[in-house]
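Hey, I'm writing a tutorial for new members on how sequence and structure tokens pair up, and I'd like a real worked example in the thread rather than a made-up one. If someone can provide the structure for the chain below, I'll link this post from the tutorial.
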Amino acid sequence: MKRKTWLKGFVAMSLSAVMLLSATGCENNAVYQANDTDLSSLNVTESSPFYFGTKDRDVFGPVEVHDPSTFKDPNSEYYYCYSTDSTMGGNASRGVGIQIRRSTNLVDWEYVSLALDSASVTEAQRLADGGYCTGFWAPCICYVDGEYRLYYSVSSFGSCRSRIYLAVSDSPEGPFVNRGLVVDTWNNTSGNGPNGIDPYYVESAEGTPYLVYGSFFGGIYLKELNADGTALNSDTSGLMNVYYGTCIARRGSNTLDGPEGASIIYNEDTGYYYLFLSYGYLGDTYDIRVARSEDITGPYEDYLGNSMTSTSVATTGTKLAASYEFTASSPGGGDQPYVLDDWSWNGFIGPGHGEPFYDDTTDTWYFAGHVRDGAECYKTVDNNQDTWYMHYLSIRELVWVDGWPTLSPEMVYPNESSENSQPVSGSLLAGNWETLKFDSLENEQVSSVHSVLGEYQNGGGTATIGGESGNYTYDESDGTLVITLNNGTTITAKVLACWDLENWKTSMVFTGIDNNGVTHWGKFC
């Protein structure tokens, strides 16, 4: 691994006191003029460096994390993250048993151990056909009735021959001991039924426990559980549609892979259940989408009212994030000593397979998933598809806009929370912005375009988003930004303070959804 500074692949230019930012791929190599606005009032904590390129887990804790499940431990100061038994090429395997990491601020992560005890690993590794599983997938952590419960997947790649186990512990750091088999789709050889992977534990508003699970084979299912977290129906000798549970989302007629990596939360303020899930190929076109329902068992619908189980329309849910690129002058912060010599900034690829989680100590929602470095030097070919192999834990603040969840365009800075932040003053909004939107059924990488918000006067001002002009209003009391464009598009968004990972400075972003169900991100230059 050759060492280099972040200057490789970038052009940094100064013109008097004005910084000009340039990055390949954004608006045909456009140059965006940085604003000279003083943002010190935003009270943002500088983040720790994001080390692109390193595979060293001791140097950078988020590296190698895949399919994360994250929560705030109610009995300690730590956030914990549990993830797939993933090992990058060149690294020694950590073994089999679900990886555990912990953090006090959602940015700096340390590896703890494997979660499962040896007897549980041995039990789960023994496959029904006499084979041997070499790694467990996509866990889900929850704390219920005074115990830590860990659901995890055992599968053979590319088939429905899969199982989901439940293991329990009195400590978030384990060891977790198997309580039982919760879902078994090993005999689903036709591929028409569900695939027993990607579990997620959820309770209805009335307290009934369920397991969300499944993948593109048969869709996403919801299976009722007993109070101890085991399967209410464990009889695989009867009608399998009863055993599997209720199908709440499936691929339908769309051309993207998926769905998979599903989770559900309930928002008592809106009265809706929200189904998060991913479509696309995990190494390239992966994404994050959402639908909602007034009943936990469905029907779930996207922003435009399309059912997630429809076979007549190509519905995949409302897209919240996919591959993207903002301009960058100092991505990750200062020197990047671990990247390959031919590395250059090319945005992020394939955010997905994540879960929302709520921190009741700060009254803040977050979304934790994984994301990939989009640099061309980290691209390879796997299963005849382009695959970017450098992947990391990615955590973003989740905010609510007009009854729908949206994700911050930037990853969290240390201890970012609703409790610690204040609404952004309207006087700060005027200037150059870069914006992007996730409006395609397909998932090619989206690059930012230049946009401008005019001077804030009497509650608003002029707006130009890309090439479309209009006006905006802004509510300083809660950070709600409404942009009305002359082409009939109305974007309702929230403005958040942020730490700008791409340019390594305090900044602000907006995140929202328009009247056509399209997600928009914006960042102050």
